[in-house]
Amino acid sequence: MCRERRRARGVASRAARTSAVASVALTGAATWAVVGGTSLAREARAIGRALEAGDVEAARARLPHLCGRDPQALDADGIARAVVESVAENTSDAVVGALVWGAVGGVPGLVGFRAVNTLDAMVGHKSARYRRYGWASARLDDLAGWPGARLTAVLAALAGDDPRGAVRAWRADAAEHPSPNAGPVEASFAGALGVRLGGTLSYGGRVEHRPVLNGAGRGVGTRDIDRAVRLSKRVSWLALGVCVAARRIVKGRTS
Questions:
Q1: 12 and 66 housed in the same domain
Q2: Do 12 and 63 reside in the same domain of the chain?
Q3: pLDDT digit string, tens, across residues 1-53
Q4: How many domains does the chain have?
Q5: What is the DSSP letter of 204?
Q6: How far apart are CA 150 and CA 101, in angstroms?
Q7: Phi/psi at 178 (nearest 5 deg)?
Q8: Chain mean pLDDT for the chain
Q9: pTM of the prediction?
Q10: How far apart are CA 185 and CA 178, in angstroms?
Q11: CA angle, 28 as apex, 27 and 33 as ends, to 5°?
Q12: Is 200 helix (H, G, I), strand (E, B) or coil?
């Protein structure tokens, strides 16, 4: 009888270890598929290298890989500003937001957040074609992205070169941005990097005049692309640490 019990405990222990390994593998695979930090940095730096080489046309050709703005309407500095703003926003959308929902809901949280984010990218824009029903996916994306955007803004302030400037720009300018989530993130990045973001842009066939974020900062230059990427990476690693700790707390309370 004792031998059978030991054998049963051994089988249960191996099953638990196998289950734990499978859970870690599944979570890792889902995180790799969902979190877009690596591709974000790669595309941003590719554009930066083209601008450093003076090849504005190559940078314009690459820009649509990163954001939906009209590259032909942008000069070198305009492309650099678009890249920095996209790095900031996508750090929240593609990395931190996914990690937050992964901490809350595990793999389903990761995949669900990315599905909401992708749906908004597909039909959430304010265009004549999608105006009637795109608003629903846009509002859902705003709701899902709210916690990740605030965490991104906080971590950008902590990890940036000018924490006070980041907080000051966030408090002063974020609310003026048309997006409730991109506003805090871009303002915090602008203050942390000491640059001025926002202004006129051409997007999806229309011209938008967005508020200036961190108006006391200088104009964005090519070298700021790499600075923004480095800040994005620091924010991502900090967010990973915060979310892993939060996930352990959630699992501890539910176990």
A1: no
A2: no
A3: 445 444 544 433 444 444 455 455 545 544 554 556 678 899 999 999 999 99
A4: 2
A5: T
A6: 13
A7: -65, -20
A8: 82
A9: 0.82
A10: 12
A11: 100
A12: strand
